[in-house]
Amino acid sequence: MTTISRAAAVSAVAALLHITPTVVLVDRPDAVAQLLPGADKFFAREVHLADADAHKLHEAVDWSPVDGVLTFYSGRRGTTLIGLLEFVRVDTPHGPVEVSVSFDTLGTIRGVIVTKATVETKPWVLEALRAGLCSHYRGLTPTATPAATAASAALRGSVGELPLYMAQEVDKGVARALAAYRLFAQRR
Questions:
Q1: CA of residue 170 relative to chain centroid, distance
Q2: For the structural domain made of 20-185, what CATH number should be given?
Q3: Rounded Cα–Cα distance for residues 32 and 86 (Å)
């Protein structure tokens, strides 16, 4: 396949899925600073999932991370752990949404920020965020079920159908982060 025909094929698929370019809502460094306040040292730890581990995650939340790798970011103040953070991508028919989820030292959700959306979904995501979507995740523990993470239910009736749909996609990202934390964050 030539470069031109490959580009045409990619364009045709994108047109069918009507995916628009990704836009940054909050830069990752800003999200880290907001979600791990006071941290002055940061570390990334990759967890490479074996097939059995990937299956556990898929069974828990119907998801497999890209390349079978989970990355947990820890923030410390000196030698004191402030918390952990994950960036989770959720692919939708309208393009990807990225959700950052932070956990305190006990594993409870400290905060959630939507860091990326697409040009098309940005207004819907922003409407869901203005309606208080992310505040509903604070305090969830790693044992929370995906149904318990359905913060979008709190928005029903206060936002339109498309913002509600995007809120449900953010719910998926939070459920994935909780499952990944529960199953793999404590591994050494």
A1: 7
A2: 3.90.1010.10
A3: 10
